[in-house]
Amino acid sequence: MIVFLTGPAAAGKSTVAKAFQKAQARNGAFWVCMDLDDFAKGISFDWYGLGAVRGPHAERGLVYVKAKDGALTMKLGDDLRRAFGAFRAGVLAVAQAGVNVICAASLVEEQDWAAWGEIGAAHPVIRVGLMGPVDELERREKADATRLLKGLARGNYAIYDRDEYDLRIDTTLVSAKDAAQLVAELLP
Known about the structure:
- By secondary structure, the chain is an alpha/beta fold.
- The chain is 39% helix and 22% strand.
- The chain contains 7 helices and 9 strands, in the order βαβαββββαβαβααβα.
- The chain has helices spanning 13-26, 36-40, 78-96, 110-122, 134-143, 152-155, 176-184, and strands spanning 2-6, 31-35, 48-50, 53-54, 62-66, 72-76, 100-104, 125-131, 167-170.
- The chain starts with a strand and ends with a helix.
């Protein structure tokens, strides 16, 4: 089984994933948490860019584009598109090996949703959208001293506003523990 958590920045994807994994462990169920943020930390800064600060390969990697209102959007290049595809393939491979996976991942491009859909065609996936009012998500971003980039909540919010989720949770109204319980209720 794959539980796929997605949502804008500061929606609580990693936090809910860890709460879910912990709750399942208390019940004796083994789940591996695979987080796209952790995977992305293994990519050299040479493949990232923000404003005038750009690695030599940023155009092939991930460029953050800042709008006048401070919102950040992401432009994905071919190298990171392949790397993120490999991450999705890794999630599927772990699940096909018989290991339950809770996956926390952002959508960068509209086609990412279709790519996760292809995984759902190959293996059972529960798709969970973690959301909240964009102003509150921005407040969370600003308050989080560990968050390097501010503005992603607003910049990529629209890509998550869809009807295809199996479950949609407003994480500004429920705790991570309660969100994890709502997800667990969807398990077969």
